[in-house]
Amino acid sequence: MENRQVVKVLTLDDFDLKGKTVFLRVDMNCPIDPETLEISGTKRIEESVETLNSLKESKVVIGSHQGRVGNNEYAGMDKHAKVLEKLMNREIKYVEDTIGEAAQNAIKDLEGGEILLLDNLRLCAEENYEFTPENAAKTIMVSRLSKLFDLCVLDSFPSAHRSHPSIVGFPQVLPACAGRIVEREVRNLDEIITVAKAPHVIVLGGSKIPDRLEAIKLLIQNCRADHVLLTGLIGNVFMRAQARLKSPMGIKREEEVVAKAHSLIGEYPDVFATPVDIAVDKDGERMEMDVREMGKGDKIFDLGPKTVEYYSRLIAGAGTVFISGPAGFFEKESFSYGTKALLNSVANSMATTIVSGGHLTTALKQQGLDGKINHVSTAGGALVLYLTGEKLPMIRALEDAAMKHKSR
Ligand code: 3PG
After folding, report:
1. pLDDT tens digit string along 278-313?
2. Residue 381 CB less than 6 A away from ligand 1
3. What is the pTM of this model?
4. What is the whole-number distance in angstroms between the Cα of residue 117 and the centre of ligand 1?
């Protein structure tokens, strides 16, 4: 992994923050328990505390998204405000609005040292679209709110790959800098990328299939993936493409993503590894079987031991390992085996190691393995894309803001 991204961005240390009204874009997009509708992992909220502590003398307006419109995790930010309040042991103001009069009045009413959390930014339609930075600056969100801010702090590294108005629009019209999370992620990742050695082994799970397919292609093309070991839903997509899974998976744009996986396998036949055995749910019990023994209605919930052994051998021979996304239905103890076993192999390898995403960072901590990994990040898709060497929209926005600042 050569060609580290040379990033020159401003940080909070470059600004006099006292009394300033600051828009802080964080990523508090957390897992939500489908039954209780409660936040089931608060790691991303915990991470925001460091930057908030650096902004103690400012009037802070936090903006974040939660889920995607229409999915199970799409929700308001009221619960996040409560979690943050507990973590910081102080009042966090919350307004059920994003860009309307209520939000604007709440921002104007802030006193020095106060923190206000806006509602889910994706309630504002514009935040669900990708824009060029110039067009993002013309959105109603940016034109209405930017008048109320002195500075924009970008700290949502997990969404650094999105060119949404709150990420690339505000820095066009306001001074902008990186928060502590972005500062640390970029510094650590660039250090790792500089020393990273081949073979590069990428272990990929997760469910955002179109994003994953795009990233896989870039990783291979940019010589950052010698072996791609597939797990989770993306593993199933590749097994469908190999005609090893007979039943449709019932996912969005299924034929299209399977066709893409098929053409990737054709283009790079020696790169991909897919599961040989799996675990299914039989009347509430874990049942392991070879992939070829699967029946029509069987749904994959985890990897089997042969796959774990096969993948662990490739991990043991790696110079660099990057693992992202759970290997199965990790939330359920009986299906957490694959995720835990692969994390164990990564932690005990001699390679330079990166663990990415909320589920894996939680599992790592539960196993007491976090100290054995070179870099642990709550970011998922953004981190995968960062490793491809592509410049992410947020990083570009921060670099442009730094250039503008210097030429003033
Ligand atoms: C993530 O969890 O990957 C980020 O919060 C980005 O979310 P998105 O893929 O819905 O834009």
Report:
1. 999 999 999 999 999 999 889 999 999 999 999 999
2. yes
3. 0.93
4. 19
